[in-house]
Every structure is written in structure tokens, then in C-alpha cells.
Amino acid sequence: MNNLTKAAVRLVSTTSLRNAFGGKRDFTRTLWHMSKNVDTGSHVSGGILKAKPSVSCSCGCGGSKHMHTKGERELVEFLTEEILAERKAQKIKTVPTTLEGFAVKLDGAEVELTKQGDKEKIVINFNVNHTVDTEEEPEINPSADKPDLGEMRSKPQFEVDIVRGNSTLSFTCSFLEGTPEEGEYNDIFGIDEMTIYQGEWNEKVYAVAGDVLDGYLYDLLMNLLEEKGVSNEFVEKMSDLATAYEHSLYIGLLENVSKFTTGK
Asked: Which tens digits make up the pLDDT trace of 155-187?
């Protein structure tokens, strides 16, 4: 069941972090490395292109392929520093091909985890777009050289399909926010929606929201997911994988913007 058509991916706002320094984003997305001031150089004078670009243009183009505007050159110079900082901050350089017995398949922003058993197949799908936020809302001191803004993590909404023959029992799940109160289960994710269908899913298939399920039935379904390998510990590791993969995609995006701007 495709999570892009069945349920919208949760959009997580990071506006408060972007505006923490008076609207200017002076820190990398990794939230620990402050960007250095770049030297604007003398390639462009007063925003007007010179007849011949300098062969020592710091963007790396060599001044022979592209006539850069002031905005393009400054963008590339900043991206060069940003990419280096983000690569330095990567905790996981290579996204694993397996996770707790699940095979990992990557396709753009889409991730699919699959585990094949004798009688059933379990498939988990999620999309890493718009899934990154800090662990906590930090208190920021704008005067600090390197303020501690917390760790950014990807916590995507995800689909869990338990497939037996032509039948699929499907769950839409998402990460829970906040700290559980005394007496509550210490789950880090919950069931948003459940459905069961034959063949391919379509808009006519009935689904029930998790918050209207009988409480005991909800607990039994959470126990079922845990038996199938989708436990709190597994979902935490899945978040680690999503975070590493989303970060690699972000770095790749910066590199592609840099190449596009330099005309390479």
C-alpha cells in the first residue's frame, strides 16, 4: 500500500531553527558546524560581469567554461564549504543493505525494507522527504560561536504490509512525539491506520484510524507488529537508517546544485 497515495507524509516545520538567528541561516543542517564567512573575491565588480573571468575563480570552474554572476560565484563558494562540513559530520558514510533481517532497497527518496518468510512477506515503505527535525526544541544563544542545537533525525511515517498470498494486512504508522506519562506504554511509534485487502490496494478499500480502535485490540496489533520484527528497537534503528540516507541525499543535492551553477 503506497504511503504517498494512502496517507500524506508528515511535514515537519523547522522554521524556528531557521529564524533562530534573526532569519539568517548561519549553521549547517548538521546543527553543530558554523559556516565560515566566504571571501567574495574580485571576480565580479559591482555585480557587473567583467569581459574576461578570472582564471583563479575560487568556484573551481577555471574561468573558461562559464561566465559567472556575483550570485552564482558566491553560491558555489558557500556550497563548497557547506558540503565539506556536512561530509565531516556524517556519522554513517554508507547506508546498510540489510537491517535486522530486512533487505534494504533505495530508490530516490523512497526506501523499502523486505523480509521474506515461509508463509508471508513483510514489506515496510517510507519516504524521507520532509522528515527531518531536531530531537528537541533547543534553547539557542545567538552569541555562541557554535551553539548546541541538537541532533537532526529523520522520523518518517511508514507503511507495514504483512502479505500472505493475495491478502495484505496493512498498517500506517508514525513516530510519537513527547514523553509518555506515568502508566503509559513507552512506545516510540503508533498505528495511525489499519486496513486489509485482496490484490492491489485502491481508494475503495476501507481503513480504520488507529485512535478509534478498541484499546485492547490496538495493544494486540502492536504486539503483532513486534512479533513480526517491527519493535521499538527496530523502529529506532530504522530512524538511524533514514537519517543517514536523508543526509546523503541532502549532500548529493548540494553537490548537484554546485555542478549546475558552475555549468559542469
From this structure: 999 999 999 999 999 999 999 987 655 556 689
Sheet strands (E) in the chain: 44-45, 48-49, 98-99, 102-107, 110-116, 121-127, 132-134, 152-154, 158-164, 167-175, 189-198, 207-209
| CB neighbours of residue 12 within 10 Å | 13
Phi, psi (5° rounding) for residue 241? -65, -45
Q: Identify the three-state secondary structure at position 87.
A: helix
Cα distance between the two ends of the chain: 40
User: What CA–CA distance (Å, rounded) separates 126 from 4?
Assistant: 9
- Per DSSP bridges, beta strands 110-116 and 121-127 are antiparallel
- Provide the 10 A C-beta neighbour count for residue 119: 6
C-alpha cell at 137: 526544541
